[in-house]
């Protein structure tokens, strides 16, 4: 079997189980000659259990116009907003706190995100999540 050559890697954030061939999928994959409907069917089938969440996907496109994709974990700000029960982060994070999360919630998010973070251990991952929370105006309490 001949080895396929990778022509592009495209990263897209999509709603789980509810992707459509309209933008951003069509605009990201269309120029590479990928059948967007086929990708949408496979993505929606793979993410049906996570419906309602944002699930990033990394699509690897090969020279024969075939593709494969890897699902990632939800973005950290999305998980923090869900844990704090807020719509969006603070526009002025130093002055205005918009919500709070517990250290246990931060640790749970860090465990969930561990495979996608560039952290060596759980403590480093927790510090990364706490930094994201701080930049969103979310306080981390005991």
Automatic annotation (TrEMBL):
Every Large ribosomal subunit protein uL11 C-terminal domain range: 72-140
Domain Large ribosomal subunit protein uL11 N-terminal: 10-67
Pfam short name (any one): Ribosomal_L11_N
Gene Ontology MF: a single term: structural constituent of ribosome
A GO term from the CC aspect: cytosolic large ribosomal subunit
GO BP terms in the entry: translation
PTM summary: One or more lysine residues are methylated.
Keywords annotated in UniProt: Methylation, Ribonucleoprotein, Ribosomal protein, RNA-binding, rRNA-binding
Self-association state and partner proteins as the record states: Part of the ribosomal stalk of the 50S ribosomal subunit. Interacts with L10 and the large rRNA to form the base of the stalk. L10 forms an elongated spine to which L12 dimers bind in a sequential fashion forming a multimeric L10(L12)X complex.
Function comment: Forms part of the ribosomal stalk which helps the ribosome interact with GTP-bound translation factors.
HAMAP family in UniProt: Ribosomal_uL11
Family: Belongs to the universal ribosomal protein uL11 family.
PANTHER family noted in UniProt: 60S RIBOSOMAL PROTEIN L12 (PTHR11661), LARGE RIBOSOMAL SUBUNIT PROTEIN UL11M (PTHR11661:SF1)
Annotated protein name in UniProt: Large ribosomal subunit protein uL11
Species per Swiss-Prot/TrEMBL record: Ferrithrix thermotolerans DSM 19514
